[in-house]
Request: fold
Amino acid sequence: MRTQVAIIGGGPAGMLLSEILHQAGIDSVVLEQRSREYVLGRIRAGVLEQGSVDVLRAAGLGARMDREGHPHDGAAIVWAGRSTFFIDCWKYVGRRFLTYGQTNIQEDLFAAADRRGAQLLCEATDVMPMDVTGARPHVTFKRNGASHRLDCDFIAGCDGYHGVSRSVIPASVLRVFEKVYPFGWLGILSETPPQPHLTYANHPRGFALASMRNPMLSRYYVQVSLADRIEDWPDERFWTELKARYPDDIARTIVTGPSVEKSIAPLRSFVAEPMRHGRLFLAGDAAHIVPPTGAKGLNLAISDVFYLSRALRAHYGERRDDLLDRYSETALRRVWGAVRFSWWLTNLLHRFPDMGDFEQRAQEGELDYLASSVHAQASVAEQYAGMPFE
Reply:
C-alpha cells in the first residue's frame, strides 16, 4: 500500500487531518485500532473555541454544528459563601464558544469520510511506524489476520496518550513534562434540561461543573477521590452530592434524572517535546494532555491539525518545508499556553487533599480578586475563549 500521509488514529484529530488534506488534494490512509462503534461510543469534550469552530466550518463540517451547537458568551463561577460571578468572553474579547459534543464531531467526520470514500481502516492492530528518520518511512500493521505495510511520505501520530506513535521517538530525543493531580472527575450524562450557563463550583466538599450537550442532554461533574469506583456512585448519591456543592438558588434548578453514561477520569497535565521526529508528527493527545477544567483538550487537537495540515499543504503545493520544520515549536507555544491556563484553573477551583489553612485562604483571595477585577476577568476570558492561531 502507498499513500502520501499515513495517519495513525481515527479520533477527531486523525479524521479531521484526513478531511482537510483530502480537500487539498493530498492522499491519506487512516489506521484505527478500535472499531468504528467503539470510537463513536467514547464520551469526551464538548466545548469548542471560536478558532476550532472556524476550522471545522472551513473543512465543510459546520452545517450540523451550527444547527445543533449552542453558543455561550462565557462561564460562571460560584464558591462557598459568595455570589456567582460571570466570565464574559463576548464582552471582553468579542468571542464566544460553542457547546457541541465530541461524539457529534466524530459522527460528522465519519459521515464526511464515507461520502468521499476515504481509506479508513478500523481494527488495525500491531500498528508500528517504521524508518521515521530515514528515506522510506512506512507503517506496519495487521488487519483481518494478515500483515500489511503502508509506505508514505509522512506519518501523523494522532493515536492518543496510550498510542504507539510517541514511543518510537528515542528517549534521548523526547522530553516529557507531567503533573498528576490527586483526584478525578466523576461525570454523568443525563437526558435532562441543563443549566443556562457552564457553571464551575469551588466548595469545601470539592469541585463541581454543570455543562451541557444540547437542550435535553446535561453533562455534570464532581471531584472525587482516585480510590472511588463507579459502583460507589449510584445516581441518587451523585445528584445529592452535586446539589450540595452549589448555592441553593442554583441547586433548586438542577433537574435530575437517570444517567445515560457515567465515568471517572483521572486528571493530569502532560506535554511531550518535540512534536516532530524526522517524518513523524504528533498531534492531539499523543503529544499532550490537559485537565478538562479549561476545556482545552479537543481544541488543542484541532489547533495541532490546523498547523500540521497547513504545513503539509505548503510542502505539496508550494514545495516549501519551513512550516513543517517549525511545526513543533509553533504548536507547542499554543500547547503550553493552554497547559498553563488549565493548570491554573484546576488549582483555583479544586480542593486539594493537602491544602492547609494558608493555601485555602490564598485560594479564596484569588477568587475574590477575580470576582472584583475587570482586568483579571478579561485575562481569563481571553484564555478561556482561546487565543488566535498564529
